Amino acid sequence: xxxxxxxxxxWKMNLNSDEATSLVKNILKKLESINKVDIVLSPSFPYLxxxxxxxxxxxxxxSSQNVFWEKDGPYTGEVSSDMLLDVGCSWxxxxxxxxxxxxxxxxxxxNKKVLTSVSKGLKVILCVGESFDQRRQGKTFESIADQxxxxxxxxxxxxxxxxxxxxxxxxxIGSGEAASVNDISSVHNFIFNELKIxxxxxxxxxxxxxxxxxxxxxxxxxxxxxxxxxxxVGNASMDCDKFCDIVMKV
Length: 250
Ligand code: PEP
Hints:
By secondary structure, the chain is of the alpha/beta class. It has helices at residues 17-31, 48-55, 81-86, 97-102, 107-120, 132-136, 140-151, 181-198, 219-223, 240-249, and strands at 5-10, 37-42, 60-64, 91-94, 123-128, 163-167, 207-211, 230-233. An 8-stranded parallel barrel has the order 1-2-3-4-5-6-7-8, surrounded by 5 helices. Strand 3, helix 3 (81-86) and strand 4 form a beta-alpha-beta unit. Helix 1 (17-31) packs parallel to helix 10. It binds phosphoenolpyruvate. Phosphoenolpyruvate binds next to strand 8.
């Protein structure tokens, strides 16, 4: 079983070629000797190949922020799992709330992306999270269960090791303030129990990472919680010192 904690950097639609390249070079200098954490960087599509060449022979992995479910064909603007593997990605992010919101991604689309990606050999971080309204109405667990069940529908137990669940409460993303440790803890425990029901025969379960305004001040309180196997970092991952600080405190 992979016991390592995971720190996943989501740069979203930020950083140009020079900025992304110099950030990676600086991260590599600072984190050269870090061995105990799985680190994944997810630049925008146009820079994947360039960043991959910098990561060659390092322990840092490369992810896309999205993928399409078809193998090839008339799908203008989309990128397949094979193309991602071809440019050096070992990971893809699926179902981020910003894509659910702005690109109208449904759980059915997300499920097709998960099924294709894992069958092609990509590791997947599947993002789930409740909105502020759902939380206010006491529907957090219902919403998370629905996203998990529909997003992971028909995923064979043999792919479990390739999957990570990113729990990201939508109302704290980019807010500068993470959810409380009590909230994080209760949702992570809930996700863990749901996964146990969904994959009853596996020795393994997907790792569960928390995302939403993680920074170098709150990381230690978050990472020590049960069933928190790592973090997904947005804003703070685009600053070398802040990001490396988080990694070193994990
Ligand atoms: C994210 O959007 O995946 C994220 C974690 O963002 P932030 O850390 O900026 O809240």
